[in-house]
Amino acid sequence: MMGSAMPVFPAHAATPERGHSDLVLLVDDMPDNLAMLHDALDESGYTVLLATQGAAALQRAAQALPDIVLLDAMMPGMDGFEVARRLKASPATAHIPIIFMTGLTDTEHLVAALAAGGIDYVTKPIKPREVMARMGVHLGAARQARQDASQARQARNALDAFGYASITVRAVDGRIIWQTPLARALLQAHFGNPPGAADPLALAHRAPAPAEQWVPAPVQAWLRGHVLAGDAAERLDHAQAEPPQLSIGQGTRRLTLRLHRQAGDSAGGGDWLIVMREDSNAKLIESMGLAFKLTAREAEVLYWVVQGKINRDIGAILGASPATVKKHLERVFAKLGVETRTAAAAMALNRMRQLHQQFDG
């Protein structure tokens, strides 16, 4: 049996408090292995969660979402290979790196471990220092991947907040990698609802894409002419500027699309970011509200301040008294952390200018 100093978490236990340490799920049906590794990991500052059976490992992984899994390959009942396959099949746990611990050194078993979703393996008898060295490599890569994903989400949220929307297209085959909700909304507003059939960007050899990945025919033609054509990647590699933008007008609203090359395989054309922006008073006001957490009326007041209007003029435009406009403006100042209308206008203009420089420069 394991020593009393070794914590055992029942199946219904809440996720242990990890603080700033990495959470390790340690899965092994042998108490001695668990005790030795638990003590070494704990002394090194890791937070450790334990499981002695495959079913318990799956449950605890789903509950706690550990940073890494140390998984015994051979266990009675559900073995480690099946545990790994199920973890990788679940969207919630598929990203978690798995290191197999195995006493089997035959090539076919090591290949099976990697094929099941393992990122690495260590052989028994377990050497804690070796295990932690392997863990350090994969935890560092996992942290970087999470940081990159977080930064990408923040960038997309910032784009959406200022009325921009974005789609990423893989140039080699036109596959849409992701698109923001605002991108779908803008396409629908300017081109109507998508047909329920295939993605117009899908090539003949590809399976139909979901309806939400629909791109209208004018945008499709623009992409094919500048990115998806057979020699587009070669031509673009020699070009000094990015492809010309596409501008589509609808009444007082205008949708502008620009292409920006992202990191990728230049031989295959890389990935392309489509940045869309709709210009209209209403959209700009909405963007200011989102960016600075303003109410709809506060955002309207800030918009007209940026346009150089005084309180009396703003009141006439909005159908409110100058005193009411002044109250709204005072709340705007408080939310922006400024004291004057000049400072408020400068802050709003600066935020918009930063995005313009990043995506239009």
Automatic annotation (TrEMBL):
Database matches in InterPro entries: CheY-like_superfamily (IPR011006), Sig_transdc_resp-reg_C-effctor (IPR016032), Sig_transdc_resp-reg_receiver (IPR001789), Tscrpt_reg_LuxR_C (IPR000792), WalR-like (IPR039420), WH-like_DNA-bd_sf (IPR036388)
HTH luxR-type domain ranges (all copies): 287-352
A Pfam family the protein falls into: Response_reg
GO cellular component, one term: protein-DNA complex
Start and end residues of each Response regulatory domain: 23-139
SMART domains, alphabetized: HTH_LUXR (SM00421), REC (SM00448)
Modified residues (4-aspartylphosphate): D72
Keywords per UniProt: DNA-binding, Phosphoprotein, Transcription, Transcription regulation, Two-component regulatory system
A GO term for molecular function: transcription cis-regulatory region binding
Gene Ontology BP, a term: regulation of DNA-templated transcription
PANTHER family: REGULATOR OF RPOS (PTHR48111), TWO-COMPONENT RESPONSE REGULATOR ORR33 (PTHR48111:SF1)
Name this polypeptide is given: Two component transcriptional regulator, LuxR family
Organism in which the protein naturally occurs: Verminephrobacter eiseniae (strain EF01-2)
Organismal lineage: Bacteria, Pseudomonadati, Pseudomonadota, Betaproteobacteria, Burkholderiales
